[in-house]
């Protein structure tokens, strides 16, 4: 989880520095949800084995934990940066174009999604004799 949070933190910095001046703040955050999904799925793909989940329920519960920890981090960081509650929850307001719930949905299901991908497209190491 800490790898995902760190990667998303860097993603936010890079989005703000390079993309926000071109697209504007809110539009950059909207697009950032989709690039963030790719980051989450990529990291999850390579680290899902560390979860050691024995079944789909455990994978799902891991995703729920990731969701809770991410929302707690987002809110804490927003408050630390003196963002208003309105600004923090702007990204969660689907009716007004906020796409964070879409990203969180993917985050919650990422362990299940990548485990399915890995079962269909397993990583092959040089030591594998298959």
Description:
With 130 residues, the protein is mainly α. It has one domain (2-119). The protein has 5 helices and no strands. It has helices at residues 2-23, 25-47, 56-80, 85-90, 100-120. Helix 1 (2-23) packs antiparallel against helix 2 (25-47), helix 2 (25-47) packs parallel to helix 5 (100-120) and helix 3 (56-80) runs antiparallel to helix 5 (100-120). The protein is globular. It starts with a helix and ends in a 10-residue tail after the last helix. The model has no long low-confidence stretch (mean pLDDT 90).
How confident overall, as mean pLDDT? 90
Report Rg: 16 Å
Indicate the overall shape.
globular
Helix- and strand-based class? mainly alpha
- Distinct helical segment count: 5
Distance between the termini: 31 Å
Helix content: over 70%
Series of H and E elements: HHHHH
Number of extended strands? 0
Short description:
It is built from five helices and no strands. It has 130 residues and is mainly α.
Topology, please?
Layout: H1 2-23, H2 25-47, H3 56-80, H4 85-90, H5 100-120
Helix pairs in contact: 1-2, 2-5, 3-5
Name its key features.
0% strand; 75% helix; 130 residues
């Amino acid at each position: 989880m800490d790898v995902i949070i760190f990667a998303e933190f860097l993603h936010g910095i890079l989005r703000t520095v390079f993309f926000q001046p071109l697209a504007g703040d809110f539009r950059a955050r909207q697009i950032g949800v989709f690039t963030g999904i790719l980051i989450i799925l990529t990291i999850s793909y390579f680290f899902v084995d560390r979860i050691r989940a024995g079944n789909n329920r455990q994978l799902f519960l891991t995703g729920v934990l990731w969701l809770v920890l991410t929302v707690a981090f987002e809110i804490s960081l927003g408050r630390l940066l003196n963002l208003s509650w309105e600004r923090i929850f702007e990204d969660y307001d689907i009716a007004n174009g906020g796409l964070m719930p879409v990203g969180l949905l993917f985050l919650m299901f990422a362990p299940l999604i990548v485990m399915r991908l890995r079962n269909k497209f397993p990583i092959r190491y040089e030591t594998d004799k298959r």
